[in-house]
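Case study 2.
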Amino acid sequence: MKRSWTAGVVLLSLVLGFFCIARSVAGAELAPVDGKRERAIETNAAVNGGNAGNGEQAAISLEQAIQIAREAFKIPAELDQFTTGFTHSEQNSFWDLRWYRSGMEGGELSVRVNSDTGEIWSMYKWLPPVAGAEYRGLPAYTREKAQAVAESFIQKLHPERFKETVLQQGRDYIPPLSFKERGAVEYNFNYARVIGGMLYQANGINVTVNGDTGEVIRFDLNWEDTKDFPPPVTKISLPQARQIFITEAAPELNYFRPYAPYGMDVPVKLVYRQPENRRQVLIDALTGKLLNEEMENYYGFGAGGGADAGAVYSLKESIQLTPAEEVAVDELKNLLTREKALEKAKSAVEIPAGYVLSSSRLEQDYMFKKNKYWNFYWQPGDNSSSGGLNVTIDAVNGDLIAFRFYEDIYEDYKEQEVKYSEEEARRIAEEFIKKNQPARWGQVLFESVQPMPGPVLPLREEPVIRSYAIKYTRLVNDVKFPANGFYVEVNSATGKITSYQMTWWDLVFPKPEGIISREEAARKYLEEAPLKAGYLRLWLQENYWGKPDQEGKIHLVYYQPNLNFEMLDAFTGQTLNGQGQPVQPEGAKVEFSDMEGHPAREAVELLAAAGIVVKDSGYFRPDDVVTQAELIAMLVRCFDQSTGVAPGGEEPWYQIYYEKAARIGIIQAGEKPDPEAPVNRETLARLVIHSMGLYKAASLSDIYVVDFQDAQDISGHLKGHAVLSAALGLIEPVEGRFDPKGLVSRAEAAETIVRFLKNS
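Prediction:
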């Protein structure tokens, strides 16, 4: 998006001035505030003078800013060093205060004080953990208790502004809640500003609370003093906006394959998602018109985005083979020799006069190991410029994969006359693709042509169009596959193609049969992330393209403020993230419809919120017997929540959990549990005790006095496990009996895991 240079300077000033305090932190406490602060503010205005650049003309002096910070927060005695800075913008000016500890231990407390009002706008604190005070198991504070801490904190600092906010869904940081040492739990609370009943998320208050200590560790206030808000009155009703979304901005049916390096076999999915050039749906609340924010960068094909950055054939996305590997591969009959590949490159792309070949590399595709490419690079022989040419040829079939001309950096700033229109550039691109890929040309759809402006030259109000970026998307079964297709750049002055890229993967595509309709997908979008009227500052394409000195304006729009997913599964309607994995609402309490009134409800919901219990339906089935696979999966998630279904879906879902359970020590190496076998109480004791790292101690069965009435029913090698589990309060005996063969319900398993975590 375009910004004015003045806004850029202001932003840079804010970033540089605030850099020293933008850290991850832990632990701060509000101190009582008395009347000294107000008296300081009143008396200071008359005594300040001097240079505004160092804050001497600020209403609040440095000394008073320090006093305000000290009155609000307890400064740890070990923070024996102090630095300060002054930041000024058109909106506000601030004193940036930082207390820190000298030496290797580290630690800091940073506070930002508004130099005009004396208000505290931010706070960060970090201290190294104290030996012996490591975080383990469950946090001492639930999210609800942490929220009360956060709101009490805000009330003391900004009571009036707090009244003008509403809590938004947020993302907490919850590490695996294991028996072993872990990182701190952090609860994040975002209170967005409300103006005339309309949400303005760009403004608000953010607070982070340490869930283990109950301390506020991060605080930020962002609040504009602006008057350019449109009246908070919509002319388009919410039902009308919903209908506009469904009829004009419904998500599109696409094929999707997540970025998967190293040759992983990841299946292609059918999904509904918004087009790549639409970050979010914006509906003008006054006119009903769809608004498009200006997209400054144009993205081509590939996993990562742009034509250069995402091309798996570029140097940074390839694996260079060793000389020995090159020889071995070269000997394979289906690979072109360097000489033949070079001939293909020269016949496909005109090499500029005076250019000499400087490098030739046989490369392996970063995402698909079976694919190999010859990459050739030419540069000016007389070193007269920094230009160059890169050409990539398929080492199997000789196809032209990509090429790019790199201009001399000084050429980019020269005056250029536009001689070719968008239509002419598109015709040039199409003729080139038809010549090189006639069969694939019939399998693509024209997507877009994007003018690529050059720099703003003197005496010109608008930048000159340097080139046109033209994109064609692959069609499979009449469904778009946005990751594949053609990308071409055509110079507007010469009509010369300066960049070309073909991305075409050999994959298996599911047939679009039995999927939900586009209208159903649109309604699912709105169900999961409802439209709301609110204020947004926007840089619109139609208003700001080619006008870098224009500032964004605040618009009253309908949008989805709580949109936390990228796409929908076209078969199930499940919300998916950017990697195609299921997502849960951020900050939302996970509830199960069959847990109402159940004694284990609190335990189940606690584990669900921590990611240990996965909600794959609306039911938990608390009274069903837990299987070995289910229990092992829950225990593994206590240590590693990154575990998911094995790529490709060829292995059973529990296999990866078994592998990690063996590495953690929950099960023994080579042990192959029966995934569907019901878990009894002595098996539960064994797996939980092993999770605590007490395997060796529990194995010494002969040292334990087993005084259960049914001791004879406990397997000999598990008597130590039973005694320890009871002694630690993990599994409660029933009337003096351990009941080793008694089956364990899913609810009982959840309660035991909670006790296990609390024992840490």
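The first strand starts at residue 81 and ends at 88.
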